[in-house]
Amino acid sequence: MEKAKLNNITLDEEDAALFNLKDDFLLKAKAIKYSILPKLNVLLEETVSRIRKIYGIEVFSENSIVHSAPNFREKRRSDLKIDYNYAFWGLGGSRLPIWDGLKRVDNKPTKIIPHIIGYQFSNNGLMLVFHNSKYKLKFTEKTCEIYLNFLLENMEYIQTIQSFSKMLPLLTNFRESESIIKPFSEILKSCKKDKFYDIPFIRKVKFPLDYNSFNSIINSFVIFFPIYYSLLEIARSKKSPLKELVTKINHNNLYYNYQDVENKKPQTTDEKILLNIDKSKFVKAGVRWQVFERDDFKCIACGKSAHDGAILHVDHIIPISKGGSNTMDNYQTLCHLCNIGKSNKSKKNLRYN
Ligand SMILES: [Zn+2]
Question: How far is the CA of 31 from the centre of ligand 1 (A)?
Answer without folding.
Answer: 17
